[in-house]
């Protein structure tokens, strides 16, 4: 291939790049050819890439800001007379996948009545499923990551899927759009899950693989320091595959005695706990909803910019304050990371001080008040590392929504 042809091929490759990383990779693979490209051509290519990247960001910004139900927004060509076909989804407009529409901006508004019949049909097909038993009757669960099942080929799992069945992510970002979704609850939940709805709840926030609750609820375990038969048990886990694995463990033959007492739910507790507890309160015959809540060894999110991802937030504290049993409600949390533990304790004192009091003051609880260690706790103790614990009690103050 001649040098001019190589230069053209390299420029075409650069034109297809969408970010800085791809550009650097393309130039690195073709470093011999790049030196022969005239500077003005290279400059023009980089300007085009930068321009397309900027337009894409602006386009995404307008998509997020469109929220008026009275108007539909059409794509208006922004550069060199490009066409503007659009797809309708709810109250938002998305550009088609055609490359000719990548540089269209969302600017001009059109009347809703001008939308063609075919577009209305597409919109109806795109209507998502709704959890009709929810309190507001408008809960979208179509894109919930906890409701997705692995794609099967001919009804069977592939070899790679089998190998990855029990390989889980250690960290997820609870603030990402993926996890800001409600989980799917059946229309009959919790009646179809628990045998006795007169019992209050034992709530394990961040239950991981469910080993702690399985050991606690199991009749064969007599080392618990609480009355096991007094409660119904719910384990919440944000990582979809981990929540699925916990439910698989519950469905095993040797756990038949636990069915009707224990339920694992994949969800984001900071997003969905209010709805879950409201559903349980609506169906329960007990005045007490949550008697015990446990937060054990949560993800510490060490980086300063990631502290906002930690599980204990003002919203979570308000929800627990609302549903925990006055006078007797017990909140137990522990961690082997002192910084993460102190952050949890300080947040409960700051945002929940009106409803909770620390039973041990500034001291640490010496032992696990439940009597059953988590898998993480066993590992930490075996290494002779410290575990920091605290117990907060719900006082008799009635909850005041702010």
CATH architecture of the largest domain: 3-Layer(aba) Sandwich
Share of helical residues: 25-40%
Uncertain residue ranges: 67-138
CA radius of gyration is: 27 Å
Please provide the count of β strands: 11
Strand order of the largest sheet: 7-6-5-8-9-11-10
Structural class: alpha/beta
CATH superfamily of the largest domain: Vaccinia Virus protein VP39
Question: What is the CATH first-level class name of the largest domain?
Answer: Alpha Beta
Question: SSE order, as H and E?
Answer: HHHHEEEEHHEHEHEHEHEHEHE
Largest sheet: 7 strands, mixed
Helix tally? 12
Q: Give the strand content.
A: 5-15%
| Tally of discrete structural domains | 3
Question: What distance separates the N and C termini?
Answer: 72 Å
Mean pLDDT: 76
Instruction: Indicate the CATH topology of the largest domain.
Output: Rossmann fold
Task: Characterise the protein shown here.
About 18% of the residues have low confidence. The protein has three domains: 65 residues; 62 residues, no CATH class; 235 residues, Rossmann fold. The strands form three sheets. It has a seven-stranded mixed sheet, with helices on both faces. The protein has a two-stranded antiparallel sheet with strand order 1-4. The protein has a two-stranded antiparallel ribbon with strand order 2-3. The protein is 33% helix and 15% strand. With 402 residues, it is of the alpha/beta class.
